[in-house]
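Changelog-adjacent note: as of this version, every example in the card shows the full chain rather than a window. The one below runs 398 residues end to end.
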Amino acid sequence: MGGGWERGENTKQHRDIWIKEKVNWTFGIEEAWGFTEEDAHVALEKFLSEGIYKFEGRDRHRADQSNTAVISPYIRFGQLSPNTVYHAAKKRRGAHRCKAFLRRLAWRELAYWMLFKFPQLPDLSLRMQYEQQRWHNDDDGARVRAWKTGQTGFPLVDAGMRQLWVTGWMPNYMRHVVAGFLIEYLNLSWKIGADWFHETLVDADVAINSHMWQNGGHSGVDQWNFVMHPVYAAKSCDPEAKYTRKWVPEIRKLPDEFVHCPWDAPPSVRAQASDFRIGRDYPHRIVKNLRAARVDSLRAVIEVRKSDDGRRCILPCGNEGLLLQDGRVARCITRIDYRTNSTKPITKQTIDEEKWMKGRSKSRRDNDPLVVAMKDCANRQARMENISGVSFGYFPGG
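Full-length structure tokens:
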């Protein structure tokens, strides 16, 4: 299991083991990590020699490349100090050329400050009115189980969750993908995600974990102004599907354009991919109508804002206020969709075809299979919206 899942007769067996949560965690983690201070400095040097040169741009989002700093467990357990990392990066690149990386170190300190000031952060919504938010009634636990075990039917989401289970880690962009999917599409509480991350991450840190999940779950001081789409997000982090194929080998024989949306593969394509069948080789999607799921999540937040407790917290600017112990009111950043009490999502995550195709030849632009597949998917969604009379939007990836 250290290198992913094996496809074939063992797939169902592995899935059943995952669901029962009886896998020996140590095997994959021991393969993925060294545990000494020397290993920590090797990982830091690798990032300073390679990844940091791509970290300032959007290439840091690539899950299929080593452009991010895989040092968070070492900082968490003390083999590396934040000061050591800060000064090493500043010396190697200069502060002005690694701003994005240094900013993330600062966010770590912010999370620690937040936990110090608000010790209830791991357990209770910081914006207390969100304790009453309506979440999906997952009575049989099917949604939670599918998310935890990487069986949602959305390959990119499943890849991230399987990597987490096997190695105890996943890139930051993928953490946003799977968190957004849990909250905005499955409409399940951020507390479920925070508990699972705390249980499975080798870099689990109660301050950072609580701070980030609260922000993603609407109740933190700085609501995320993006929601990753479980298909479109692949354009930024796994455009050639190498990452997804590694962790979801059931779909590895599908052409690139269908790896992230296997349900769109025509029967002829599935037949050529070893007679691939959804429902037999790979799960059906846990959520079929992503638009309806997003709208339901939006409505749940608007319901909170329109409640008696919610109205009392809304500032004239539309943002929400947090009453502090000294009587002052802090303004909490609130997503525009909520500030305006919108009935539909406003911000959108798009395919961003023009930016993606910049610099490629015209023939390549016209024939890029992933773009063609995503455009077909977008056109199909537009037709469905015309039929239903409802318009839906998507959020930009971070």
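Structural remarks: The CA atoms of residues 155 and 260 lie 6 Å apart.
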